[in-house]
Design a protein that fits this description.
The complex is a heterodimer of chains A (354) and B (566). Chain A is built from twelve helices and two strands, in the order H-H-H-H-H-H-E-E-H-H-H-H-H-H. By secondary structure, chain A is mostly helical. In chain A, helix 1 crosses helix 3 and helix 7 runs antiparallel to helix 10. The longest helix of chain A is centred in the middle third of the chain and has 42 residues. The radius of gyration of chain A is 26 Å and the shape is globular. Chain A starts with a helix and ends in a 7-residue tail after the last helix. The model of chain A has no long low-confidence stretch (mean pLDDT 83). With 566 residues, chain B is an alpha+beta fold. In chain B, a hairpin with a 2-residue loop joins strand 7 and strand 8. In chain B, strands 1, 3, 4, 6, 11, 12, 13 and 15 form an eight-stranded antiparallel β-sheet that branches. Chain B has a five-stranded antiparallel β-sheet with strand order 2-5-14-9-10, with no helix packed on it. The chains are: A mainly alpha (354), B alpha+beta (566). Chains A and B meet through helix 1, helix 5, helix 6, helix 10 and helix 11 of A and helix 7, helix 8, helix 12, helix 13 and helix 14 of B.
Chain lengths: 354, 566
Amino acid sequence: MGLRMYIGKRLVYSVFLILVIVMLNFAIFKMMPGDPTAFLMQPWSKESPESRRAHQEQIRDMWGLNETFWVQLVKYSRNLLTFQFGDAFINRKPISETLASRLPYTLVLLGLSTIIAIIIGVLWGITVIQKRGSIFDSASVVSSLFLGALPTFWLGLVLLLFFYGQLHWFPNAGAFPREWAGNWPVPSTLNLQSSGSQLNIVYSFSSEGFFTLIGGYLSHVFLPLLTLTIFFYGGWLLLTRATMLETITDDYILTARAKGLTEKDVLLKHALKNASLPLITAAALNFAFILTGAIITETVFTYPGVGTWIWEAIQFLDFPVLMAVFYISSIAVVIANIIADLIYGLVDPRIKYG
Amino acid sequence: MSKTQSKFAFTMRRLGHFLVLLLRKKKSAFGLAIIILFAVVAIEAPLLTPYNSLGEDQKERFFPLAVGSAAPTWLRYLPTWLGGNPDLSENLVITKNSGLPKLVEEGGEWNITTEGEGVSHETCEDVGFWSAPPGFRTYSENGSLEIKFDRESGIAYNQSKVFLYHEFYYPFTGFLGRFIGNIELFVNGSTTHGKLDVPITVTVYLGHLDGKLWKVWPCPNEAGWSNAPIGFALDEYRQPWGIDRPESGLAGAPPFGDYGWIISRSSTASVASHIDSESSSLVNNKTEFRAGRYPQRVIFSTPGMYVYGVEITFLDQKSPDKQVETSVFIDDFGLLLQGTSFGLLGTDHHGRSLFAQLIYGTRISLYLGLLVAVFSVVIGLAVGLAAGYLGKFADELLMRITDVLLVLPGLPLLIVLVAVLGASIENLIILLGVLGWMGFARMIRSTVLSIKERPFVEAAKAVGAGPLHIIINHVLPSVMSLTYVSLATAVPGAITAEASLAWLGFYDPLRMSWGRMLNGVFEANAITNWWWVVPPGLAISLISVAFILLGFALDEVLNPKLRLRR
């Protein structure tokens, strides 16, 4: 079986997975107690029971709740596959719109924290490997285990307590200073200038506005970033240490040392290169958590990403939002799995497909 | 010795050796010590704290133990540079027995002074409620103090005043958190045309002995109470300041004739006789407390002698040719002072003991963690054994289901399911158990695949053993070591998941878990109260790490080969 066949098989499997996820969403929706139209009915209104029933029936018709099971299933699947999640209960706005506005915040936060965590974790792991068996080694392992076992929201709360409550170094909520509302710093402007018969588009960049904007954002994103990095780096440290431990005892390392290579060359060019495959796959699989990895952390800092949105949805039991987030994050996992499989197939020449 | 006995002895000996082996390792000894400590705390919780984590007393009535978000008491003695605050105040029980206001000469704590003629007092039957107001201590001394005004006919009318008071020392430099007083009155007397011959006014005072006495009850805005002489009339009993006729369903209403009224705690105005510094009528009392919105801070500003008492004025206005009398029965008269600090860890925003919540949270975490571990391990074991041993179609089907469940993102799925099914602890246990077995099942399957090919399984088959017999008697014992490890390592994930969901707002309303405590921090916006933020998270982390370490140690002891291969 060649690479193409392998990829094809994975893709077919992924499509099957997505269909299963859609079915599961539908099943959960069907499992919900009560009538989904009930929350629109106002129990205190003075309309008669008959007209209310008719009214409710009308909504059920509009939402397709009176269709047969199979028609509902097909329509539901079609809407999910085309990312039409309907309107949120809270603000009656399309869910995909809100999702699109919230997503960049989460992506930046999680992307940054993952990159920083990988850099710190891998570098630390390599340092630890050089001194394996020492107190530094065991201290690093135990501390990353402990930090990984902490509940993220508590870690965030403690950081907030210290840096915001005691030291007042960082703000406690949001992504930008509150006083900017209506008066945002402007990083760049586009102006139309007419000189004679010609119309010029003049792009002007204001470095002051740019740095104010970035600085305002960084001061807000620092604490969530720190929380996530502390939470993530331990896993990378342990993974690097474990894979390096495996390669460093191999014979070719001994050969490299015997050749008289420096320890740095041995570690980075021989050991790390061969140990990097699991690291790369793990990084690819990390995409799976790009949406859900920060739910808890965001809520601590009221960071305006997907997590805080979920938190708001939970307070109102806004089912459509919760289910949309579940669906989207499942899709993210499936995609991450495909990417990991592809990387595995492309990077490692030793791999056999099948 | 019979066979079973020797078998039992062997098992015990083996267990003993195993424990010794486990305890020799630093990791597992540390982990086991912490787990045992938490288990003892969970079991002995009622011995460690007298309070309920939901702030209920023995009769399941909610009662705040101190002011909301109170600090721990020991902060008073900490130097300020360490975060201490000597200006905190503590709870004070001012009146030891609020059941019967006993006078000093009878061994009690109340003083009485009278002004004018015709007033006498004596101990009488109980007129208050059977149950004391929450938070008040009422011992078996039931009864009430009767204050009687009596004027013979032919004597000129007069006005008489009685002041029943209790002096106490307030030792704190800082202000008070809250004061809660209670008084129950029963008024009885001679009447004409349904109105009392001698109306009364009642005022409860509280204040510094050398300073101002503040009227704390009734409030001026509780219509007509403070200024006008009040004639109790039958048609007035329904009015909102709360005078109930004894026959209106009050337990223990005394048989004192037709013209009695109890000014009650449970009447239409809910605070009618409940004196509370946080009651709206007192807080918004502009005439008395202009200085601030906190009566307790205005009244209790410096340490010193304070007085709490009730003044009863008999307004005799009838013509002298009639003999008139009015009796006032005072019952359940008392005062509680709640400080700005409480107990070992202070209180949450509803005035519930945080220490009790921490202690009782141990129970929930262990209960949930262990049950989820058992659930998920049992499911994983069943699936893994079936898939591994049966192979073929069963294997394919079970492994595909496992794969799908592994792909689903855990937290969003949990959120959706909990939102649909409700967030009781039992639901959570089932959900976490059902969603947590996949990795373990895979591990078991791969182990079973190799065990299946071993000679002893073949031998069993040759003797004619069925698949069920082989799985239970030959395969299962070989995977038990994996099972023990997984039992230990499944616990922390479950505990953290519960805490995360509780933090997000999905908590069991009937139980107080560590996660819900942290949710309260956010709800009360009390991020700077480190004594509230730190302990629950530390407990979660400690118990998680303890189980992880135990799992590692078990892994090392039970699967030496596996360990080497890794």
